[in-house]
Amino acid sequence: MLRLQDTMTGEKRPLETQEENLAKVYICGPTVYDYAHLGHARCFIVYDVLVRHLRASGMAVEYVRNITDVNDKILGRAIENGETPTELAERMTEAFWEDMKRLRNLKPDTEPKVSEHIDGIVSMIETLIEKEHAYEADGDVYFAVRSMEGYGKLSRRQLDDNEAGASGRLDEEHAKRKKDPADFALWKGNPEDEWGWQSPWGYGRPGWHIECSVMSTQHLGETLDLHGGGLDLVFPHHENEIAQSECATGCTFSNHWMHNGFVEVNKEKMGKSLGNFFTARELFEKHEPEGIRLWTMTVHYRSPLNLDWEEGETPADNRFPSLEEAERRVAYLYATRERLGAIPPKRLIDGGEPPADKLSGFPAALKAALDDDLNMPKGLAAMQEFLKEVNELCDRAQGKKGRVAKKAIAAAHAGFVALDAELGLGGQDPSAFLTRVRDRRAKAAGVLPADVEQKIADRVAARQNKDFEAADAIRNELAAKGVELHDGPEGTTWTMG
RNA sequence: GGCGCCGUGGCCAAGUGGUAAGGCAGAGGUUUGCAAAACCUCCAUUCACCAGUUCGAAUCUGGUCGGCGCCUCCA
């Protein structure tokens, strides 16, 4: 049973779904005006693990994540780029999907776009006007926050406590049309030569929050089992979604609210204006996406996730020690999996000792960790102990007369299956992964694989002649470039340290 | 001003009433022609500080100090 922190109640409580064995999950997706950044990566990995875990626990999940393709920022950026907002949005949507795929995030079941829900938006606004929760003003439509009892319940704030314009972003033009400073736009009128749609209140575009109310309701029904997004969306976005949806339908909007923490860079919030902003794809140049995936799991999903950044002379010289460490851990995972797969059948025996608890108990330990408010660091700790046991198993199989029990091997394989199902780790081809990491590092260090292979051949010859001095000279020469040689029964292999 | 979060070993980080997971780094060992990898052992009598509650507190309460987020762009 999954227990999750609920932002609404401030408590950890079981995720109770309306229909048994079906979870209706809505996650706020990206606004597609630019490439996904590290914060997006983290956020969507968190919800990906949520969905994976629910499914691994035997639950069906209807996973809906929207694409916000209608937004002022998209328009602004498109004008800068000299393209249409639709072109930009489509380009960025494709890029987003590609990045998510590389991070090994599952595709949601439905990815509704705002541009395809304008009719629904208009009709929800009409309902809100009818029910006197919204009013028209000069071609705009605003939601009247004071018309709703309990406005502010998610973020636990009283309207009168908020400091109007505390973030210094009051838009005076629109502010004077509002009856209350806290009222927010459902529809914003704009000139017909600008991007927009026709509506009962004239030409214009939807406000920021209404699209999620409409898309979630349309695809999952009036009441969601869980709604999630970044911590910054609690107020105003989710608060306003609640206001719109509950005033329009009269139903509870979502039974559970989940919010993930931010990514920080050197302990400061990541932001374009701060110059410490990284897109997912620029980091993919340096680090395996799956390493980044594991890195996001090293802290609890609600805590800040800090990226260490050692700024280089040029962007290419930037270093990210925490990502390097995470990538090494993923490489260890794949190396272990590769070793397991390489155990020859003749080493396997029936019977034998029962597998160690850390081995056979890993899937259950992982499930228990995730059941407890998606505790991924705890899950990784269990993974680490599991991998150690698998290596120990491989060590035993490698001894001169080494034999291991078939049931232990089966338990190890089951552990890897669980790891991929629950966390989305270790599901790639091990040797392809390891070779890719090695070759990328070699390239970065200016090491040519063909040269290394030649040196290895020279060294093999030297060793056959018992010329260990020459052999060691080659080892040292390569080591100076970061190349590590591994002598094994099958020959010599190499990695980049 | 309002709402909320955090302070655990050299670094990162779980743990939220029963006596400190895991990772990185470090030390020693098994193994190796030498290495690497892998594995084993060691590495916080202590959880910012001060009071209090309790048989018992890193975990609860109050206070102090320090860091941070949100208050209509934000994942």
Describe what you observe in this structure.
The chain has helices at residues 38-56, 72-81, 85-102, 118-130, 172-175, 210-220, 234-249, 280-284, 289-296, 321-341, 357-360, 362-371, 376-398, 406-423, 430-445, 449-464, 468-479, and strands at residues 3-6, 11-14, 22-27, 60-65, 134-137, 140-143, 184-189, 204-206, 226-230, 257-260, 263-265, 268-269, 305-307, 348-349, 404-405, 483-488, 491-496. The chain is built from 17 helices and 17 strands. It is 45% helix and 14% strand. It folds into 3 domains: 16-260, Rossmann fold (3-Layer(aba) Sandwich), CATH 3.40.50.620; 280-423, Isoleucyl-tRNA Synthetase, Domain 1, CATH 1.10.730; 446-496, no CATH class. Helix 1 (38-56) crosses helix 14 (406-423), helix 2 crosses helix 3 and helix 10 (321-341) crosses helix 15. The strands form 6 sheets. It has a 4-stranded parallel β-sheet, with helices on both faces. It has a 4-stranded antiparallel β-sheet with strand order 5-6-7-8. The model has no long low-confidence stretch (mean pLDDT 93). The longest helix has 23 residues, at 376-398. With 497 residues, the chain is an alpha/beta fold. The structure holds one RNA strand of 75 nucleotides.
Give the topology, please.
Layout: E1 3-6, E2 11-14, E3 22-27, H1 38-56, E4 60-65, H2 72-81, H3 85-102, H4 118-130, E5 134-137, E6 140-143, H5 172-175, E7 184-189, E8 204-206, H6 210-220, E9 226-230, H7 234-249, E10 257-260, E11 263-265, E12 268-269, H8 280-284, H9 289-296, E13 305-307, H10 321-341, E14 348-349, H11 357-360, H12 362-371, H13 376-398, E15 404-405, H14 406-423, H15 430-445, H16 449-464, H17 468-479, E16 483-488, E17 491-496
Parallel strand pairs: 3-4, 3-9, 9-10, 11-13, 14-15
Antiparallel strand pairs: 1-2, 5-6, 6-7, 7-8, 11-12, 16-17
The structure holds one RNA strand of 75 nucleotides.
